[in-house]
Amino acid sequence: MGGLGVRSIWRQIIRNRLSTIGLTLIALLVLTAILAPHIAPYDPFKTDPIHKLEPPGQKNLLGSDALGRDILSRILYGARISLWIAILIMLISGTIGTTIGIVSGYFGGLLESILMRITDIFMAFPRLILAMAIAAAIGPSLTNVVIAISFSAWTTFARLARSRALEVRQEDYVEAARATGANDLRILFVHILPMVISPIIIQGTIVMGGIILTAAGLGFIGFGAQPPSPEWGLMVSDGRNFMPEGWWASTFPGLAIMLTVLGFNLLGDGIRDILDPRMR
Amino acid sequence: MLAYIVRRVAWMFVVLWGVMTITFFIARVIPADPVGAILGPNAPPEAIEQERARWGLDKPIHVQYITYLWGVLHGDMGVSIRTRRPVLEDILRFLPNTVELAVVALVIGVTMGIALGIVSAVKNGHIIDHSGRIFAIIGLSMPAFWLGLLLLLLLYYKLGILPGVGQIPYYVLRPPRATGFLILDCLIAGDFSALWSYLLHLIMPAMTLGWISTAAITRITRSSMLEVFQEEYINTARMKGLRESIVIMKHAFKNAVIPTITIIGIRIASLLEGAVLTETVFAWPGLGRYATWSFLALDFNAVVGVTVFIAFLYSFSNLIVDLLYAYLNPLIRYE
């Protein structure tokens, strides 16, 4: 992933059709999340016992759920939750992983061995299971989904940041900085960190699809957001009690999850193609 | 080679010990209250004290940890606070159902994935290739639990060609438990009507679980086949006048199979995770469902037991892949 920066990759993404579709899907998600209160036809929490389990039609474009809430409005508001989860996990696990990675890559020696062995142990955890254990212990909620997934997702970033820091540490300008008397902390954060950031962001995009799937899975089995939250995984789970008469109640939120993940996967694929042309 | 194996196996046990320790502390130190969960919110304090003492939760945490570690070294993973059976016994009771499901899913994933991957690579750039790639990426983007629901909706509720959730309907007598594997138990009892009913119930969950593997294996097979196609010896084989099918299967696929094996190794691990979601959708009494229920009930011994057990299967399949690799590529051994 060496020399390619975020900017040159960006230019190539726009040229690739599939990753443009991915980017469009992500842009749609972001727009939906921002504009949800303005474009949602109804209040996502307002129950309407008379119109419960209405099929998709003129009043409710995607139907209503068992409490008469408008599915479309709930999906639109749910976009906020998905995006929020994705951003937070990315920030938290990215920060933890990058810090551990550059520290161990830069200092090397015993510290590196210890940190990397700890990383290995965390990698041996099946992600969903670890997240379930944490979410169960601290109680199911949206915040805890973020904590739980971050707790298991940082390892990829740590490995990447370490190998990048190992390369950069040899560079002349780092030597020069050291010769002028810069201390380790300064070298780490001023000279090494900027060189590590762009591969981390790229890696983040590639793994994001999987992270959103795990988060939705946690919501589905009851470890995530709690009712009446319009979290998509939870909506799928709620709706399945009304199969098959109310098929729309879980079909459409699931479709929203798939489109979001598809967006990230297409974009991630495009990036991978650019970085490794052999895979094309 | 032997030294390498010993080193890797030893390291696997260190990792498992780490996993166990971390999970132990997550399950016991963090404030959730399992005893409160059993006794309910209005329990008198004395009863809570008594119950805590009964489960050894009143002792200092390091004493609890040493007791637990001592037990594990003697094959005792504690008693489940929910089922009141030894955790290991529970795990071994539910494991066969998950293994059966995962094996069938893996067979579906491997055969379909390799076939699609080869076809896609051979027809590179053709419409078949494009549809194969789109299928694969959509497959990877689908939440397994949602796919399961869609299958149920279509094949059970609408078309009625497959049975719904569960393993065997309540009115069909289960064969006596001999191996725990229902297929084998049915065969041993010679009960073919139960076997048939079970196999029908197995189709949808196995398809759900196998789908993601299919997508992943298709992708990797396709790209490694494409890579091999550029090698000189493929041209040589063609110029020798060999039939195209022989070139593809014997010369190309044989050399492209290593990355596919790696992915299959990784899939085995994530099949266990997929099982958690699939079993929830299909009310399948396997390890995944046991895990979900134990975690929701804060069943601390079961939480640690299940996590360590799954981490063990996970590390073990990684170990096998690594050894296979070292066997195929001697350079790795001396690193």
Order of helices and strands of chain B: HHHHHHHHHHHHH
End-to-end separation of chain A in angstroms reads 16 Å
Low-pLDDT sequence parts of chain B:
none
Largest interface: A-B, 49 and 51 residues
The biggest sheet of chain A amounts to: none
Helix-strand topology string of chain A: HHHHHHHHHH
Q: Residue share in helices of chain B?
A: over 70%
Q: Shape of chain A, please?
A: elongated
Global outline of chain B: globular
Number of strands of chain B: 0
Q: What structural category do the secondary elements of chain B indicate?
A: mainly alpha
Description:
The complex is a heterodimer of chains A (280) and B (335). The two termini of chain A are 16 Å apart. Helices cover 74% and strands 0% of the residues of chain A. Chain A is built from 10 helices and no strands. Chain A has 280 residues and is mainly alpha-helical. In chain A, helix 7 crosses helix 8 and helix 8 runs antiparallel to helix 10. Helices cover 76% and strands 0% of the residues of chain B. Chain B is globular. The termini of chain B are close together. Chain B is an all-alpha fold and 335 residues long. Chain B has helices at 2-29, 34-39, 45-54, 61-73, 87-122, 127-141, 144-158, 182-189, 192-229, 232-239, 244-281, 287-296, 300-328. Chain B has 13 helices and no strands. In chain B, helix 1 runs antiparallel to helix 13 (300-328). The chains are: A mainly alpha (280), B mainly alpha (335). Chains A and B meet through helix 4, helix 5, helix 8, helix 9 and helix 10 of A and helix 1, helix 6, helix 7, helix 9 and helix 11 of B.
Structural features:
heterodimer; A: 280 residues; mainly alpha; 10 helices; B: 335 residues; 13 helices; globular
